[in-house]
Fold this protein.
Amino acid sequence: MRIRRILAPTDFSTISLAAVDYALGLARDIGAELALLYVEDTAYALPAELVSSETGTRVMEQAHRAAQHQLKLLAGRVRKPGLKVHALILAGPAATRIVEAASKLRADWIVMGTHGRTGMARAYLGSIAERVVRQATCPVLMVPSRKAPARRARR
């Protein structure tokens, strides 16, 4: 299977940026395009009971501009001669938008970071990465956090 396009979602966290770096290395090594994706997760929108719609709109617009700026900086940092880099921002549930973007872009791989949470933290917080793995139609390469607990080998 020839890998032509790699999708690297990011939320600009240290974990996701490490995954972007990993995706960059892969793309460079195999001559693939790199698509960077930031999802404005609307599940975390400000409730109308706490802020006026005008204030909420202004805050969301500021967050969008900040994300655009961060994504532009990131794309500039990873862009290298001979490497095609795309950057896009989508809004909605993160896992759903990542899977949709991979399909629309015809990504051969998704490379993303994971916190490596287990137990109650994972159950409570959920896992965008896990949902992407379950829903994606292409392979998903998970780059674990360096802080993720090491798994003990079973005897």
Q: What stands out?
A: Residues 5-144 form a domain with the Rossmann fold fold (CATH 3.40.50.620). Confidence is low (pLDDT under 50) at residues 148-155. The chain has one domain: 5-144.
